[in-house]
Amino acid sequence: MEAQSSCELLPSRKRRRDGSNGETEEGERFGKIPRCTVGLKHPAPFADELVPDGKPYERVNMEEAKRGTPPDRPVRVYADGIFDVFHSGHARALMQAKCLFPNTHLIVGVCSDDLTHKYKGFTVMNEDERYDAIRHCRYVDEVVRNAPWTLTPEFLAKHRIDFVAHDDIPYSSAGSDDVYRHIKEAGMFAPTQRTEGISTSDIITRIVRDYDVYVRRNLQRGYTAKELNVSFINEKKYHLQERVDKVKRKVRDVEEKSKEFVQKVEEKSIDLIQKWEEKSREFIGNFLQMFGPEGALKHMLKEGKGRMLQAISPRQSPSSSPTREERSPSPTFRLPFFSKTSPPPSPPPHHSGARGYLISEDDDEDDDDN
């Protein structure tokens, strides 16, 4: 697979010159700087699959590399590692190596399983998986399989390497305090920054710490105890724990649902109590308006009692009787068989509280003669 070249627009430094009015006469300018990269539609090729370049190998120094090289002569930067359980820390390191110079061709070396197990330890991913993971990183232009543990001049010349990128922390291995010491002394070392907080060892530590959880999860997904290297007793134990956890989850769900039900009942009861209080206050108010000390019923009874007393009580007599002169002449009553006109009978004595009849004086004189 051939490498594809592409050009990216990179902003140049901004030059500002203030005029008399304080405005910028010349702003930001963009220049086209070619950068050799592999097309992102395809994985990076392996080094042993490429046709070797017949041109003589001449290294570029740091100043030339930073200044920028011609499009047909990118700066060849090499970065190596194990890259087990490829994560963002690996990707960031490769991104820094790719961005060291304006025109960079990044070569990544991946050590084999035999070499890694000998000098570092057992890996989670095998070498083919690690090769393939690096090939699909967007910053990688070329992959070297079975990379050496210590870089020799012959290896650097074979792959036409200009600089080696790695973090500046001394890497002690294979009986050496720093395997990159001779690279640093030759002026071919380009330091990168290590991403703190994530590493392959950290990820493996998490798996070991939560070993039971992952084993139980994979057993539920259909993996056998033999595939997980789990004994018969441990398999039964994990199944029992899974059943207990299911019961706990069901109980927790029931508790949550019961809490929700109780909460809804409480809310409804509060609403009912509030409505009952409002209705009771309204009923008590209406009752007091009708039957209270100053209610409408009391006024109605007072009014009815007054009317009844007025209807059944007699009229009150005057305080003094009228005199003879003030009396009106009473009409005389005569029987038809008497020729002489008989005076009207005298009135009975006056009794308080009773209505009397008036009798003329002539009748009194007639009665005395008889």
Structural description of this entry:
Strand 6, helix 6 and strand 7 form a beta-alpha-beta unit. The chain has helices at residues 62-67, 88-98, 113-119, 127-135, 153-158, 181-185, 200-209, 211-220, 232-291, 296-312, 361-369; strands at residues 5-11, 30-36, 75-81, 104-110, 142-145, 163-167, 189-192. The strands form two sheets. The chain has a five-stranded parallel sheet. A two-stranded antiparallel ribbon has the order 1-2. With 370 residues, it is an alpha/beta fold. The relative contact order is 0.07. The radius of gyration is 61 Å and the shape is elongated.
Q: What descriptive keywords fit this protein?
A:
alpha/beta; 11% strand; 7 strands; elongated; two-stranded antiparallel ribbon; 370 residues
